[in-house]
Amino acid sequence: MTQNEKKPLNTPASLRCSLQNSEEVLIVTWQKIKAVSPENMVTFSKNHGVVVQPAYKDKINITQLELKNSTITFWNTTLEDEGCYKCLFNTFGSGKISGTTCLSLSVQPTVFLHYKFFEDHLNITCSANARPAPVISWKVSGSGIENSTEVLFHPNGTTSVTSVLQIKDPKRQVGKEVVCQVLHLGNVTSVMQTVHKGFWFSVPLLLSIVSLVILLVLISILLYWKRRRNQDREP
Question: Whose CA is closest to 124, among 176, 175, 195?
Answer without folding.
Answer: 195
